Amino acid sequence: MRAAASILNLLLLSLLAGLDPSKTQISPKEGWQVYSSAQDPDGRCICTVVAPEQNLCSRDAKSRQLRQLLEKELKEKMDELLPLIPVLEQYKTDAKLITQFKEEIRNLSTVLTGIQEEIGAYDYDELHQRVLSLETRLRDCMKKLTCGKLMKITGPITVKISGTRFGAWMTDPLASEKNNRVWYMDSYTNNKIVREYKSIADFVSGAESRTYNLPFKWAGTNHVVYNGSLYFNKYQSNIIIKYSFDTGRVLAQRSLEYAGFHNVYPYTWGGFSDIDLMADEIGLWAVYATNQNAGNIVISQLNQDTLEVLKSWSTGYPKRSAGESFMICGTLYVTNSHLTGAKVYYSYSTKTSTYEYTDIPFHNQYFHISMLDYNARDRALYAWNNGHQVLFNVTLFHVIKTEDDT
Ligand SMILES: *[C@@H]1O[C@H](CO)[C@@H](O)[C@H](O)[C@H]1NC(C)=O
Ligand SMILES: *[C@@H]1O[C@H](CO)[C@@H](O)[C@H](O)[C@H]1NC(C)=O
Ligand SMILES: *[C@@H]1O[C@H](CO)[C@@H](O)[C@H](O)[C@H]1NC(C)=O
User: Fold this and answer.
1) What is the pLDDT of residue 379?
2) 227 lines ligand 3 (CB under 6 A)
3) Which of 342, 341, 347 is nearest to 316 (CA)?
4) How large a percentage of the chain has pLDDT more than 70?
């Protein structure tokens, strides 16, 4: 296997403006790149950190690879991580996390030096494991920085005008940066044709790349594409289907126990929108209502392979009074209407099992929203706004107050 560095993209939302590009930008060959982009009107930045991904070598040609690993990757990684420190310095309100992150980077540096000195003493696999583990911890650290509380919704940008009043369109939050396929599912009932486009540009111009004929019709507009599979609610049931776009096969199907369906507990606009499937930074979720919870919203985290419920939270918000809902960083945000004047009115944190009333307006430009879903990769809300496919940007705010909050 070649050592060519593929790219891992990590987004990190900065609380402070004014990152100095000359300080933070280094050439791609040097590895990690840190630069700011997408500055919003409040002066918050989104920083993108591009890092070389760990290549997975086979055990053959062990010594060559080991040398390669040591000379290039480990050493480079070390050099590459050091420029992160000035960026992190700017997270003044995140002092604790910065300290931890800096320590993590310095620890990494020490460990790598140690490994280089003791080159003879390490088995290749052990080295590989240690590098992987360090990377994983850094990635987790970065994830904490990227997550936050919804503060503001801006836009929308109208991407396209097409289809009926009700429908869904989406991209895969787990797809690689280059893969920007769009899926399009018009109408909430009596349809099983999914249209695929290679990019947003192809979607806009109407250059379809594939169509999929699902084995079952769907209900509602609350489908999600996650890690290459489509998850949807099978018509007239509370069965969730996981369908693979690669193989064209149903990989799993399971009834969502007690979940109301077929307009028993839809969103305010109806349309069999009883069961809402969504994905965020944490994983795959189903949002629905049950008789047991008196028609109020239940949030369940799902196993993406088996569709089993891993854990559920019962909220006190009536599903039939919700316009739409979406999940960001484990918090569910619920709008109070699908019509003009709709706003994000309620939020429920699965981390603390607590709710809050919120007042986050957004511009319902075409007066009727039948789908609203967060995409963690794009940090955007995808919406179907009365036959218009629109995107909203979100501003998240991240504060670490205490050690317990990490
Ligand atoms: C979101 O923000 C980015 C960066 O400012 C901008 O390029 C993009 O057009 C915005 N999208 C929407 C939907 O407002
Ligand atoms: C760094 O290493 C020290 C000493 O081994 C350890 O106590 C500490 O927890 C490490 N810090 C991080 C953030 O991993
Ligand atoms: C995505 O799917 C691949 C297999 O196709 C799997 O190896 C990987 O762990 C999945 N990623 C996530 C985040 O679940």
Assistant:
1) 85
2) yes
3) 347
4) 64
Tens digits of per-residue pLDDT, 283-301? 999 999 999 999 999 999 9
CATH 2.40.128.630 fits 150-397, yes or no: yes
Give the Cα-Cα-Cα angle 336, 342, 345 (nearest 5 degrees): 45
Query: Is the distance from the beta carbon of residue 42 to the nearest atom of ligand 1 less than 6 Å?
Result: no
Residue 395 predicted with pLDDT over 90: no
Contact between residue 91 and residue 15 where contact means Cβ atoms under 8 Å apart: yes
Question: Ligand 2 centre and the CA of 114: distance in Å?
Answer: 15
**Does position 282 have pLDDT exceeding 70, yes or no?**
yes
Joined together, the tokens standing for residue 105 give 């980077």
User: What pLDDT, in 10s, does the model give residues 198-219?
Assistant: 999 999 999 999 999 999 999 9
* Structural contact between residues 169 and 184, judged by C-beta atoms closer than 8 angstroms: yes
365 lines ligand 1 (CB under 6 A): no
pLDDT at 12 over 50: no
Q: Give the residue extent of every domain in the chain.
A: 150-397
Beta-carbon contacts of residue 373 (< 8 Å; ≥ 6 apart): 168, 170, 222, 224, 278, 326, 381, 382, 383
Q: Tell me which residues have their CB closer than 6 angstroms to ligand 2.
A: 100, 103-104, 107
DSSP code per residue over 315-352? EEEEGGG-S-EEEETTEEEEES-SSTT-EEEEEEETTT
